[in-house]
Amino acid sequence: MDVSYLDLLMAQQEEVTEAEGGGGIWVVADVVDGAVAPVTLEALGAARTLADALGAYVYGVLLGQGVAGLAQTLYQAGADGVRVADHPALARFALEPYLKVLADLLEAEQPEVVMFGATAQGQELAPRLAQRMGGGLVEHATAVSLDETTRTVQATFPIYGGEYFEIAACPEARPQFLTIEPGAFPVPFMDTYRKGEPTMLEVEPVEPAVRVVGAAEGFEPPVVPLAQAAVIVAAGRQAGDFELVKRLATALGGRVAGDRGARDAGWIGPEQVVDVRGVTVAPQVYVAVGIRGDTFHNAAIEGAKFIVAIHPDPTAPIFEVADLCLEADPQEVLPALLETLKR
Amino acid sequence: MRIIVILGRVLDPRGIVVNRRRGRIFINREEYIINPADRCALEAALRIKDAAGAEVVALPRGPLPDDDVLRQALATGADRAVYFVGQVANLPYADDAVMTRVLAAAVERLGGADLVLTGSTTLDTGQGQLGPRLAEALGWPQIVGAWDVEAVDGKARAILLRDDDYLAVEADLPAVVTVLPGALKPRYPDGVRLINVYKGVGEVAAALEEWDVSDLVDEAALQPLLEKRGQDFPPERERGVRLEGLPAEMAQALADALRQRVCR
Lengths: 343, 264
Ligand SMILES: Cc1cc2nc3c(=O)[nH]c(=O)nc-3n(C[C@H](O)[C@H](O)[C@H](O)COP(=O)(O)OP(=O)(O)OC[C@H]3O[C@@H](n4cnc5c(N)ncnc54)[C@H](O)[C@@H]3O)c2cc1C
Ligand SMILES: Nc1ncnc2c1ncn2[C@@H]1O[C@H](COP(=O)(O)O)[C@@H](O)[C@H]1O
Known about the structure:
By secondary structure, chain A is α/β, with parallel strands linked by helices. Chain A is 31% helix and 25% strand.
């Protein structure tokens, strides 16, 4: 086995801690249920590629409580250095405490590029830090490329939810901030030979300005008419468990619907029947769970941008109109899907 | 109480056809709509006005002297609206960093505010920087992605969705709150006000002001940070892709595909 890169890695490690003048590509991690979120690994993979072309180092930043153990995951995904801010005040994401740690760190390190996941946390932190540090920000990046002469990152981001993409760069201002769209970049190979000793940061606790009062008692989100819903999860006779269908709709922030079979089963009302004689829909995503897909149903979803069909019968007509076909029993797919979407 | 609402316009997607194979965008009807999330922010402001009384001031997201969105806002119930003219309108592109400086100065010139509301994201570019950037520039708390907002007892109260649960949160005023598209059902403009504001008649038309950006900030220093570098088109739709493997493997691949397409 060729282990020559180990020397290289160790030499690099040494230099990382001693590097003067900052720079580097920094990735701020999202921690979900005590694990590093996939989008952080994806961002590290993208950062690694950029850093190799630029001759720069990749740094990961972990904030939370009891998160120091996750540092090795960041090394494995491509980080050359990891900074950890471990403090009870950081146990849950709150803007001001996180901002304080990151602003102090990034002011001192003067990175070239700072990446976040395009998550609730990243979307709050990235623009505030960009504004504070005079940096440019492109959100929801789905691809990155380099303008090497000026060391400028060019980021692709979706327009009208992905009808097409625009490419933008911030040629003058530094740091260049990016939020990385979850799922857009591959998860890098996790190199278990990569190891490191993270640097622990001093944390000065700061009061959050936004306080959680509690559960929003009695709040009901507004009902979007089915015809205008962006995401629809629809059930058919073969759905099996309608509860799972409803949970999938919630997880995707979408509306529940069904075909005539679902209405006959008493799962949905007549106003939720997707059918040219009922409601015609045009969502970004339509998930047909156990729907066979007769002519009237399939014609009513012609305007959908992306159709997923889950049905055990390979000859079901729904597969003729679907973009993504899963020949399977929904009852076997949905529990695993719901579990994966949580992460 | 003074509430400032920041509204922008977007090209109506119903008038656009994207030809992926040719890599071209056809604008069949060049019609603009108020950015849906910004419309919800306006609705939130008007509901607070209805409940507790407030002066609602509408400001634009962009520097174009075209003021349709502001006229719409006035017709819908805003008390006052200001649009910007000056050199800044000649910039090839006014990004959120530029607009943050202009808007922060405008908030100050208006004599401050208790609440700044805007949309959490724009329909076209999907960017959500303006609210947080402005909050940072003003040094105020931010609540991002609200389903509902109210202002009571010197506090902004909002509803957020976190991991499938709706939470009530609060922050002291003044604060910046961004509202999700579709969070509230916006009301329609009042017919008479709409006619008057376009005819330039009466109180509602007088409520539309024009401010020169050079009176607010040093225009020479207003340079956008972002530069457009091109366009890209997704591959043509490929129907009938079959997932293989065990149900759990299919679920994983499906989750990846859905994550790419469902923005939350
Ligand atoms: C798909 C597509 C293709 C296009 N192709 C072309 C083309 O080929 N040639 C061409 O000349 N134009 C084209 N346009 C139109 C041009 O880009 C519009 O001016 C654009 O909708 C607004 O400009 P902007 O968002 O790029 O930046 P700006 O005009 O600087 O606007 C920045 C922000 O301000 C908001 N805003 C703009 N005007 C106002 C206003 N009056 N009040 C409040 N907010 C405002 C915008 O919504 C945006 O969020 C195209 C637009 C689209 C969507
Ligand atoms: N306004 C339009 N909307 C949709 N498709 C168009 C439009 N204009 C042209 N096309 C398509 O593009 C092809 C060639 O157009 P052109 O390149 O403009 O000659 C036509 O055959 C159409 O299929």
